[in-house]
Amino acid sequence: MKKKMNTKDYIFAGAFAALYIVILLAAVMLFGFNPIIYLMTPLIAGIILGPVFILYISKVPKKGAILILAILTGLVMSSYSIIPLVIAIAVGILAELVLTNRKGNIKVKNVIAYSIFNICLVGPFTMLLFARDQFMQTSADYYGQDYVDRISALTPDWILLVLVGLAIIGGLIGATLGNKLNKKHFEQAGIV
Amino acid sequence: MIRERKPVLYFKKDSFIDISPITKIIIFILSSIIMIRSGSLLGEWIVGSIAALFLLNAKAWGWSYKFALLFFGTLLLEEIAKLTGTEQTFSLFFVVCNVVRIFLPTIAMYYILAEKTTASEYLAVFKKLHIPDAFAVSFVVMLRFIPTLREHLQNIRKALVFRNIRIGPMYFMKHPIISIERLIVPMLISSGKVMEELSAAAMTRGLDVGRKRTTIVKFQLHPADFLLIIVGILTMVYLEGGF
Amino acid sequence: MHALELQDITVSSAASSTPIIDNFSLQVEAGECVVLCGESGCGKTTITRVINGLVPEFYDTLALSGDVKHFGNSIKEQTISDVAKNVGSVFQNPKSQFFNLDTSNELIFGCENLNLDREEILKRAEQTIAGLNLKNLVNRNIFELSGGEKQRIACGSIISMRPKILLLDEPTANLDYESIEILKEMLLNLKSLGYTIVLSEHRLYWLEDLADRFIYLQSGKQLGTYTFNELYHKSEQELSEMGLRSMNVAALFENLNWITERKRWELCKLNDKKNTQKSLEITLEDVSVAYQNTPVFQLPKLSFSGGSIIGIVGENGAGKTTFINTLLGFMKHQGTIRENQTVLKKKALNKGGFMVMQDVNQQLFSNTLMNEVLLGTDASKEQAQELLEKLGLASLEERHPASLSGGEKQRVAVASALLSNKRMIVFDEPTSGLDRKSLEQFCAEIKELSSPDNLIFIVTHDIEVIFQLVDFILPCSKYKE
Fold first, then answer.
1. Inter-chain contact C91–B162, Cβ cutoff 8 Å?
2. What is the mean pLDDT of residues C354-376?
3. From the DSSP assignment, how many helices (H) and strands (E) are in chain B?
4. Which residue is closest to A184 within chain C, CA to CA?
5. Is A121 inside a domain boundary?
6. Contact criterion met (CB < 8 Å) for B143 and C361
7. pLDDT, tens only, C41-94
8. Per the structure, how many domains does chain A have?
9. Structural domain includes residue A176
10. Cis peptide, bond prior to residue C171, ω within 30 of zero
C-alpha cells in the first residue's frame, strides 16, 4: 500500500480532479440561483462529491494522492483570489495525515479524511466576506457609519464557521454514501 | 528541389503579443489583492485597464466587450451621477456595482488562464520553476479531461430523460440520494474506462513521470511581460503605501 | 534476427483458471504486416498489449510468462516507456487516446517524451506532416475531427517518434468506408518505407495488399495462419463458422452508392418489406433545424411507417446527430413532427423516444439487471422476466449491468426501451468493434424486435449492418444553399 505513485496514478489524479470539478460545477449550476441553497453548497456538493473522493482514494491508495487532488481543485476554485488554494492545500495535508497509516478500519478513516478535505469547498465563500467589507465601505460613503453598523450586526463573521460546519457534515454523509456506492456498484462492476 | 509551403504548428493560443503564463498568474494575484484591499479609484482604473488589455490581446472579443461595458460603464455612470448630484437616488445600485467590480478583473484573468493558455505553455513554466513532473502531468490531464466529462454528463442526463427522470432542483430535493446515485454512478463508470484508455495510450507513447522530457514551448519573458509585472507591483506599492 | 518475436506467451488472470493467452508464439520479420484475427475475446487485443509492454506493467492483475523480443532484445526488463521507443501503438477508440486538446501538440507529444531537442522535434513533425499528408489537420481542436482524422493524427503522433514496429489495435472500429481507405493508403505507404506492422482486427476486407499473414486465434490459442487470398476464397459459411467478418464487401459499397446516388435527406428503399397493418406513422413536415444560425437541414416532408428499420448514413458533420436529436426532442426545430394525427412537442418526443448510446455505460444506472430494466417503466416484474428471457439475459438478472459484456449491455438498454413502450428507438453506431457473431446476433435481435408499433433508427457506417438489417436508408449531407 505504501508504494509510490506512478505515471498511471498521476494521470488518474488529474482525471479525478477533472471529475471533481465538473461535478462540482454541475451541482452549483443546479442550485446556484437560490441564495439560501447556494450557501448550502458545502453540504450539498460535499455529499454529491463524496463518492468521487472515495472511489479515487480506493483506486489510488497512495501517499500524496489526496494532496495532488487538493492542489488541483484548489487552483480551479481560486477564481477570485488565491485564498481557496491555500485552504485546499491545508485541508489536503490534514486529510493526508489521517490516511498516513491505512491499517485498521479504513472505511472510518476514509470518512474522517473526506470530512476534512471537504472543508475546501468553503474556500470560494471567503469571497462573501470581502464582498461584504466592500459593501460596507461603499455603503458608509453613501449612508453613513450608523447604517453600516446596523447592517454588520446582521451579517456576522461566524457565517464562515457555519459553512465549515456544513462542510464537515456534508463530508460525513458524502463519504458514507461513497463507501456504500463502492460496495453496491463499483466493486461489482470491477472498477475498484 | 520543390519546396512546398511549410505548415506552421501553433502550440499556443492565438494572441497579438505573446505573454508568459507566469505574468498572467502574477497579474491575477496582484489584481485580486489590489481590488480587495484598496478601494481606490485610480487602482480600479489601472487594474481594469490591464485586464481589458489581456482580454483584447487574447482576441476574446465577446469577453472584452462585456467586461469593458460592465467595469468601465458602471464607473462612468457613477462619475456622471456624482456630477449631476443624483448619486443618492441610485445609491443601492452603485453599492452593488462596486461589489461586483472588485471581482471582475480577477475573473477576467482567470478566464485568460483557463481558456486562453495551452497545456504546453504551462508545462514550460512548470519546468522553469522546477515544479515536479508529477504535478505537471496531473494538471495537464485535468485540463484535457474537463471537456470530455462535460460531454459525458450531458449524455447521462439525456439517458435519464429517456427513463422519464429529469433531475432538477425539485427532483433532487425529493430524492437526493437516488439523484446522486443516478448521476454519479454512470459518470464514474464510463469515465473510469476512458481514464484507463487514456493513460495506457499516454504511456505507450513514452510518458513516464520521473524521466526527462522536452517542452516544446520555450520559457521566455519579453519586455511586455516585465512592463506588466512592474506596473502591477508599482500600483500595489503605491496604493498600499498611501494608506 | 526477427523484428518481433513472441516465445511461448501465456497470459492468465487470477479471476479465471483458463489462461487468456495459451502458449502463443509468433515471429514477424522486418517490413512484414501481420494481422491477428478471431472472435471477440479470442485474445488478440491482449497480444498487442503484451507486445507494447502494457501487460503486465499497466494491466497489473494479469500474469505473463514467456518472452517478447524486439529485434533480438528482450523487453522483460524494460518499462513501457522504453518499449515505446521501438513500438508505436494506435488504439481502437480515437476519443480516448489523445493526450492533448489540439492536433499540433498531439503530433509532437511522443517526441517530447523522448526528450529530443526542440529543433529535432519540429523537423520530425514537419516530415510526418508531409509524409502522411496531415497538412490540413494541424492546429485543429480534436473535438472537431472525425474518427478517421483522429486515427490519422494518432498514427502521425507515433510516426514522429520513429518506432520500428507499428501496432494497431482495431484501428477501424469507429471509421467509415472512406476513412478506412485513407488509413489503408497511409499504412501501405509506411509499409513500403520498411515499417513492421502488427494489427488486430475484426474487419478484414480492407487489408488486401497490406497484410502478409493473418493469424487466426481462438480462446487464446493460435489455430491457423492464412493469406488474404485464402480467406477471401472461403465461403461466407466458413467465415461465419470461424467468427470472421465478411471479406467481400466492395460490391455492397457499390450497391449503396448506387442506391443513394444524388439523394439527400430522402428515404431510399433497400428491401421490399410488406407493410400490411399501419398502426404507427411518424411524419415530419417542413422541419428545419439551425445550429448557431447556420441551417443544418430543411426537410419538406419525410414520413416513416411503423415496423421499418431505417439506416442513417452520411459523413462526419452531415447532420446525423442533429437529426436524431430532433427526433428525440432535444433540438429546437421549426415545422411539425406528427405521430399519426397528433403533433408531438419536444417533451412528447422525449417520452416516445429512446437512444442506445455509443457508450452504453452512460445509460446504466442500477445495481442489478432487473432493477435496470424496470427503471422508469410501469412494467411488472413478470413482463420484464419474459422480455429478458427473449433476449437471452434471463440468467443474468442479478448481475451488475456494468459487469456485462458490450453486447449484453446493449441488449439491457434495448430491454428497458421496450418495457417502457418506446415508439422510436435509435441506435448510435451499435456495431463498432463487434465481431461477426455479435453482429449477426444483433441483426437477428433487432429484426425480431421490430414491430408495426415501433420505428428503429440505426446511425451507422457499417455496410454489413445496412444490408443485413435495414429497410430504408436516409442519406444525410451537409446543408448547402
1. no
2. 92
3. 9, 0
4. C367
5. yes
6. no
7. 899 999 999 999 999 999 988 999 999 999 999 998 899 999 999 999 999 888
8. 1
9. yes
10. no
